[in-house]
Amino acid sequence: MKQKTLFIVAAIVLLLVFLVGTLAYKSEKTEQSAQQADAYGTVLVRMHSPTLGNADAPVVIVEFLDPACETCRVFYPLVKQMMAANPDRIRLVVRYAPFHNGSDKVVAVLEAARKQGKFWPALEAVLAAQADWAPNHTSQVALVWKHLDGLGLNLEQMRADMNAPEIANVIAQDLADARTLNVTKTPEFFVNRIPLPSFGYEQLKKLVDNALNAAQRR
Amino acid sequence: MNTTEPFARMHNETTAWPLIFGAWLVASISTLGALFFGEVMQLPPCVLCWYQRICMFPLVLILPVGLFPLDRKIVRYALPLAAIGWLFAVFHLLLIAGVIPENIKPCTQGVPCSEKVIEWFGFVTIPLLSVVAFSTIIALLILAHLRSPK
User: Fold this and answer.
1) Residue A72 and residue A24 share a domain
2) Does A49 lie in the same domain as A16?
3) Residue B64 contacts A where some CB pair is shorter than 8 Å
4) Are A109 and A203 within one domain?
């Protein structure tokens, strides 16, 4: 009987220590990320990043995105919906986090499309056709081209442009910034410099709504 | 015979039980610690860590089965897990220390096993904690086994 009590008490104590440790760690993390939010400012948005929406929008969503990432494909229209629901009040900044094999090549294609002023249509076309060119989570850039037909892009020019060193630099810089910001999974969102507390659409929606409300009160 | 047997059983219970209980404590602390690293701190476990987890987690469930009521045979069931886990932990430790060269390390993708994710006081790494935990569990289980009647 005494042994049973000892066992149960020990089990409860261990679980309690675990729970308290978890809560303590989480609250410390939240505090840290709030403090780091300011320091991260310069790393979070670079001059070279593609942006969508009003330049003076009070709410800035920074999305780290991998064109081969399925969750990115799912989230892209959701973010667009939020922007449509709050016209001129949300700006989207895309940063690249090509974590999948071969994704950096696809990012280079997108950057080449950007040179012709067609970044966003190209991104949408690439995301929509993701299942076709990224079988088994491996990007095959050769399969991407046919999905860009009909966008009025000069594909020959793009094939030359995508190997430009400045595009490689953009990708390297974004990957380095992702490392600095501790972005290990895609998509990762920062809303007015605050990272998602935990991943999920509800969390993103809440963060955006809070930022919108805070901007309105000002 | 009839008069000494209850005494002998009680004697065994009082000595073997705390040892197995101690092994369970170590296994539980290690398991919760591993879960803390993995789920709370979100450090992705490398392949070798997973093999050590495979050996450590079941001990948390299997050892109490031998505690209530005390069944010293539990040592026989638990030792293989602890021993295999210990081998993986030692391999991992040697890998981190650089004794085992890169080219025979089994991790080819994901998180490299030779990466030190945590280093406390300059020498405490997760594989070291793992080696200590498995060694303690093995020592306690062997002691419990020696206390049992032949």
Assistant:
1) no
2) no
3) yes
4) yes
The answer to whether residue B40 neighbours chain A at the CB level (below 8 Å) is yes
CA torsion sign for B60, B65, B67, B73 is negative
Residues in B touching A26 (Cβ below 8 Å)? 40
The range of the structural domain enclosing residue A207 comes to: 42-217
Mean pLDDT over A6-21 rounds to 94
Helix axes B47-67, B126-147, angle to 10 degrees: 30
Provide the CATH number for the domain formed by B4-147 in this structure.
1.20.1550
Region for A192 from its dihedrals, namely left if φ exceeds 0, alpha if ψ lies in -120 to 50, beta otherwise? left
How many CB pairs below 8 Å do chains A and B form together?
A: 34
Take residue A45 and report the two structure tokens written for it: 């948005």
pLDDT of residue B33: 93
Q: Are residues A21 and A61 in the same domain?
A: no
pLDDT tens digit sequence for A180-191: 888 888 888 998
**Mean pLDDT for chain B overall:** 81
How many domains does chain A fold into? 2
Predicted confidence band of residue B106 (pLDDT cuts 50, 70, 90): very low
What does the block give as tokens for B10?
Answer: 């009680």
- Interior/surface letters B137-146, b for 16+ CB within 10 angstroms, e for the rest: bbebbebbbe
Do residue A24 and residue A10 come from a single domain? yes
Residue B130 has pLDDT above 90, yes or no: yes
Q: What is the pLDDT of residues A139-165, one digit of tens each?
A: 888 888 888 888 888 888 888 888 999
A7, A22, A184 member nearest B67 (Cβ) = A7
Chosen for mutation from A2, A4, A9, A14 (greatest number of chain B CBs closer than 10 Å) is A14
pLDDT in tens, A20-62: 999 999 888 877 777 766 667 678 888 888 999 888 889 999 9
